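Example for tutorial group B:
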């Protein structure tokens, strides 16, 4: 580079000297034009290699600049697309956030009643626990009494069988029989002649009797 600048300086000095000689000799405008053109040619001849050198060195920079421009456009497009996607997702996300906030508030509002119910259940469980011992004591006293009543009932029923298979329920005597050979009217007359009433299976007294027998004798 220093060599180039020295050559340019020498060229300029030569041009100035030529111009002065021309003035001294009273050159006309054509002479000056020739000198200027010659100076331009010399400068061009000397600077062309420098321009070529600089172009070769700057060409990678130009390519890099073009690549940077392309990259900037791609980044801009991707940023625009990302911004659009964020805008599209923002509304559903905000809606979900609102629903979650409402749910959290509802849970918070329900905590006091739930804790109150839990407290009441705890008190009830404690009361049941406190009643367990008295209940077991009463049960131990009632169980023998119930057994005595059952034994007494069975003894009374068993000991009250009448003649010919009759048995007593309260103040009445009953007898159950099945005779498909005897007509209904004949059976009814037979019972009435002996002071008895013949009841059909659908009569209320027969229904009550069957219920009593099932409950007490299975």
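The residue assignment follows.
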């Amino acid at each position: 580079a220093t060599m180039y600048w020295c050559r340019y300086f020498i060229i300029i000095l030569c041009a100035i000297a030529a111009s002065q000689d021309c003035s001294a000799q009273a050159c006309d405008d054509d002479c000056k034009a020739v000198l200027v053109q010659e100076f331009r040619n010399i400068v061009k001849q000397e600077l062309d290699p420098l321009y070529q050198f600089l172009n070769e060195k700057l060409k990678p920079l130009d390519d890099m600049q073009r690549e940077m421009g392309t990259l900037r456009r791609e980044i801009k497009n991707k940023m625009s697309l990302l911004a659009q996607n964020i805008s599209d997702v923002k509304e559903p996300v905000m809606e979900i956030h609102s629903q979650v906030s409402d749910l959290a508030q509802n849970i918070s509002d329900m905590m006091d009643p739930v804790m109150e119910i839990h407290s009441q259940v705890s008190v009830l469980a404690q009361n049941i626990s406190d009643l367990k011992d008295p209940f077991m004591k009463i049960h131990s006293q009632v169980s023998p009494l119930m057994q005595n009543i059952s034994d007494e009932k069975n003894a009374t029923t068993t000991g009250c069988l009448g003649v010919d298979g009759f048995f007593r329920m309260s103040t009445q005597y009953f007898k159950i029989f099945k005779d498909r050979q005897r007509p209904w009217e004949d059976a009814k007359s037979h019972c009435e002649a002996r002071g008895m009433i013949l009841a059909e299976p659908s009569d209320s007294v027969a229904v009550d009797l069957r219920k009593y027998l099932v409950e007490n004798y299975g």
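Residues 2-92 form one domain. Compare this with the pattern of hydrophobic and polar residues in the output above.
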